[in-house]
Design the sequence.
């Protein structure tokens, strides 16, 4: 009898231990899952994801610095700046899919190809995530806010005017380099430039269709060398996407054609300085990409908190913005020209 009683006691104690162990596991799982109200990254506050076309090039590095600065300045905001390492639409879709799975509050994307991101942006909205575009427009029906650097028409026409000015003649052959053929913002700028040439400079002849350079300086360099050989009377190159003007200028520099071929395009002043100095790049036209990153995060916070920006509103760290009649298209400001004389005044 004593043996039976002892065995029963051992069984009861073992059951208690097992029950307590199960309780501890449940508590551990709850702790691992994070407290309610925490962000996807484990911090409390709003999660704002900023997705560039690609990471690792100077332009988007500068945008990242501005976005992260906004995350530090704005209370309760966690910034996740993430994108593909190549300007690849399918890779960008995978990045956005991952952000949806993390249940971020806002996704702001600069699409490599607007059509490619449509399904995943619809999925994000259906998941309750606020969707924005920045730098490059997505389908306007899918975004709650669209953050633009400049007015596209003004920017494209301005670059065309600067090229003609640099050439010193309203006649001659020119070529147009672009980053990627499906990049909506680059296409809008080129269309505006072409209209400016057609309407005001009929003596300008564009020698070919726009030439893609895959957002790479080396590709732009090689394509420009090919152009210089194929069109010995070429007078100018209009290059859009920040690596393209540098590659074009590098080719002109190498061939010693600074006095014969003019190059104008959208590039950062610090990258442009060596080419501006010797005249292989005549003018770089852009804006401050750091401020664009900052503005994107600041507007993402407003959107997540149920607010919308207003025309003429002053955004701390950025300045006065313009809001179009649709109420959701925001323009940061007019373009800036960077030249041999002023490039050293800027730190981006």
Sequence:
């Amino acid at each position: 009898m004593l043996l039976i009683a002892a065995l029963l006691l051992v069984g009861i104690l073992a059951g208690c231990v097992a029950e307590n162990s199960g309780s501890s596991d449940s508590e551990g799982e709850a702790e691992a899952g994070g407290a309610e109200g925490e962000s996807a990254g484990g911090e409390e506050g709003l999660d704002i994801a900023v997705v560039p076309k690609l990471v690792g090039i100077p332009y988007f590095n500068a945008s990242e610095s501005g976005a992260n600065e906004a995350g530090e300045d704005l209370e309760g905001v966690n910034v996740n700046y993430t994108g593909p390492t190549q300007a690849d639409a399918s890779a960008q879709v995978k990045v956005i899919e991952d952000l949806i799975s993390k249940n971020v509050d806002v996704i702001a994307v600069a699409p490599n190809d607007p059509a490619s991101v449509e399904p995943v942006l619809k999925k994000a909205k259906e998941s309750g995530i606020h969707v924005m575009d920045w730098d490059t427009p997505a389908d306007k029906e899918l975004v709650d806010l669209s953050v633009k650097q400049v007015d596209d028409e003004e920017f494209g026409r301005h670059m065309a005017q600067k090229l003609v000015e640099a050439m010193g003649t309203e006649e001659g052959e020119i070529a147009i380099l672009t980053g990627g053929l499906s990049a909506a913002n680059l296409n809008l700028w080129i269309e505006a430039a072409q209209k400016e040439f057609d309407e005001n400079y009929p003596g300008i002849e564009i020698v070919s269709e726009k030439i893609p350079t895959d957002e790479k300086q080396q590709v732009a360099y090689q394509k420009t060398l090919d152009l210089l050989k194929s069109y010995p009377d070429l007078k100018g190159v209009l290059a859009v996407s920040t690596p393209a003007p540098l590659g074009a200028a590098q080719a002109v520099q190498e061939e010693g054609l600074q006095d014969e071929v003019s190059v104008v395009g959208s590039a950062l002043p610090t990258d442009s300085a060596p080419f501006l100095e010797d005249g292989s790049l005549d003018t770089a036209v852009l804006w401050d990409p750091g401020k664009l990153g900052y503005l994107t995060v600041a507007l993402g916070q407003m959107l997540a908190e149920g607010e919308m920006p207003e025309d003429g509103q002053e955004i701390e760290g950025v300045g006065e913005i313009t809001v179009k009649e649709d109420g959701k298209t925001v323009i940061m400001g007019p373009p800036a020209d960077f030249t041999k004389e002023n490039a050293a005044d800027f730190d981006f």
Observations:
- Confidence is low (pLDDT under 50) at residues 1-42.
- The chain is about 45% helix and 20% strand.
